[in-house]
Amino acid sequence: MVNLTINNMKASAPEGATILEAARDLGVHIPTLCHLNLHDIKMVNRVGTCRVCMVEVEGRRNLLPACSTLATEGMVIRTNTSRAIRARRTIVELLLSNHPKECLTCERNQNCELQSLAAEMGIREIKYEGPRLKSKKDTSSYSIVRNSEKCVLCRRCETMCNEVQTVGVYSAIHRGFETVIGPAFDLPMIDTACTFCGQCVSVCPTGALTETDDSADVWAAISNPDLFVIAQTAPAVRVALGESFGMPVGSQVTGKMAAALRKMGFDRVLDTDFAADLTIMEEANEFLHRVTHGGRLPILTSCCPAWVKFFEHQFPDLLDIPSTCKSPHEMFGAVAKTYLAKKLGIQPEKMVIVSIMPCLAKKFEAKREELAGKEAGSDVDYVLSTRELARMIREAGINFNALADEEFDSIMGESTGASVIFGTTGGVIEAVVRSAAVWLDKDNPNPPIDFKQLRGIEGIREAEVKIADKTLRIAIAHGLGNARALLTDIRDGKAHYDAIEIMACPSGCVGGGGQPYHGNNIEVLKKRAAAIYKEDEEKTIRRSHENKEVQAIYEDFLGEPYGEIAHELLHTHYRKRDLL
Amino acid sequence: MAQETAEQRASYPEIDKFYDSLPDKNGALIPVLHKAQEAYGFLSQDVQLYVAHKLGIPASKVYGVATFYSLFNLEKKGSYRVNVCLGTACFVRGSENILNEFEKELGVERSATTKDGLFTIGSIRCVGACGLAPVVMVNDKVYGRVAPEDVKGIVDEYLGKGGE
């Protein structure tokens, strides 16, 4: 421990702590911008580029950045002298001089760290009118919009992309005033190895990185009387959407969400969770098929489209190990435009499927050629993030907080607890194991349902699950850096598992790139995950194969799981992609 | 280019040889880029991708470093790189006029290359020969106390030689 004084208060801090950390422990607020410490997921951005956290240290001529200066024995620090306050304000004023003055129309309006900082500093005029960086918006991808003009060069996206996700799309390029954070050769995002996980968007403090906004197209579809517009919602959306309306983190708003979607004018409000149960049926049977036919193990889950694109770029030699299952919302679209269309007597080409997802990668996924629908257009027509849905609910003038709970429509609205937990790391594999525990141990009258050894927050977890006389060796990774470590071990023959779950985003879908901003607080993700498990416990049916609507669709339409029709509609293939 | 895979890319034996000879591979990027530029004239996208692959780092990092340092060329340069010093001492002694004169004489603007691929005009900041101001460099050769009327002579000196 080191002893120091901050603003005349005695403090002690652990060895290696920064001035910023010591001050926070003492309850002293020092404003920051570039700094971001989410050490639980290895995201530590301590680059000291923005200089917003400057403080005065006795005996030092210059002000020092609190975020990247270590607290040392006997240090006397003042965070609130007029010199420090003036310096910080000047720094923010200079940042603003090279920032578009379009807060009113910015995606991040009222949700921007730079805007908050300007308010906190009491800045009332733009003092410095200088040149501004001119840069073209990159709207090439279906998922992420890059607007370098709004970039403050905090480098958080670069740290996330390189250190946590190990994708390495972003680097600081060019020099001085022309510096931008971007891909190699100034390539458009669509031509890079970007997985579109959207974690860069999650940590961007300003409007430099945002999601592609598809809300206008969805409104147009809803208001077109010739179209039959169906909403389907992913499990992680229902435990995060409430945050956008000021509700406590971890609020479960499944019923309000269904009510809001109906009020917005969707013709059917259905659940991606139904398709998650379908995914379990297919994936579990694919797994059993591999086991009995000597196929390659381990099987890797394929629900996460950012993960899928990651292995297409980074592990093209391992394309035969991921499951061929489409992701749940794609399965949903494929059966909606065939099975459901027929049941409802609606022409598939008049059907519009809108997926509401915690994810930005799903936007790209929906545009994949191989996921073009059997009947009409794509399996999925539009993907909206949780954030976009929240904005649309507001636009529609719906008082979300006052809505009474409503149910999903039927059919394709029923779901089990097993499908809900898809929304957090470990959930997909637990859902598989829940059904396997029944199938592989037919004599057990009370097969276990909770597999807590599969839950948790560590980046890579492994567990052995004993069912009857069999032992399943399972691994789980979330965050693409962790996935890379696991995949490398498999490629090198160092790791032997039967089944592996991988999610690209730290914490899984609850921490998805399309979720409400977590405000740089990892506790938010933990509370969302807890809400997911609560939602699961509250379900009467908690095993995918017990979903009545899923049983019915196999009986009426699909035939055998992993059978011929299922193959055509519910499975896909992968391709090698270049590494850029 | 974008769809090419690593195996299909051209090979760059000079880069291999140099990289393999390095005792410490840490911090190899800048020396490797120097070597690559020396061997292949400039850092094409293919060369940068090759270096990224060789060093096991993202192409964005290589491009970031290559665009940061002005001494790295991302485009093919002329056989003769004419660089006029615009450092303080040279500038006050009229080097801007010399640069203008080169542009006039060669018919291209600064940082561009003549159609015949012989000359690229550029500027540099102080070569540490302020006593000779204004200074012009053509490749590695330094010309001191240059006046605008000397420009034609310097150009003619290389025109006679043809390309390298």
Shape, principal axes of CA atoms of chain A = globular
Number of domains of chain A: 3
**Largest beta sheet of chain A, briefly?**
5 strands, mixed
Straight-line N-to-C gap of chain B: 28 Å
> Can you tell me the CATH architecture of the largest domain in chain A?
3-Layer(aba) Sandwich
Order of strands, main sheet of chain A, comes to: 2-1-7-5-6
CATH topology of the largest domain in chain B: Glutaredoxin
- Compute the gyration radius of chain A: what is it? 25 Å
- Oligomeric state as shown: heterodimer
Number of domains of chain B: 2
Q: How do the strands line up in the largest sheet of chain B?
A: 2-1-3-4
Which structural class do the helices and strands of chain B define? alpha+beta
End-to-end separation of chain A: 45 Å
Discrete helix count of chain B = 7
CATH superfamily of the largest domain in chain B: Glutaredoxin
Amount of beta strand of chain B: 5-15%
**Strand portion of chain A, in percent?**
5-15%
The third-level CATH topology of the largest domain in chain A is Rossmann fold
Number of strands of chain B: 4
Tell me what the structure shows.
The complex is a heterodimer of chains A (580) and B (164). Chain A is an alpha/beta fold and 580 residues long. Chain A folds into three domains: 96 residues, Ubiquitin-like (UB roll); 77 residues, Alpha-Beta Plaits (2-Layer Sandwich); 355 residues, Rossmann fold (3-Layer(aba) Sandwich). Helix content of chain A is 33%, strand content 14%. In chain A, helix 8 packs across helix 10 and helix 8 packs across helix 14. The two termini of chain A are 45 Å apart. Chain B has 164 residues and is α+β, with helices and mostly antiparallel strands. Chain B folds into two domains: 63 residues, Arc Repressor Mutant, subunit A (Orthogonal Bundle), CATH 1.10.10; 80 residues, Glutaredoxin (3-Layer(aba) Sandwich), CATH 3.40.30.10. Helix content of chain B is 41%, strand content 11%. Chain B is built from seven helices and four strands. Chain B starts with 12 loop residues before the first helix and ends in a 5-residue tail after the last helix. The chains are: A alpha/beta (580), B alpha+beta (164). The interface between A and B is medium-sized, with 20 and 21 residues.
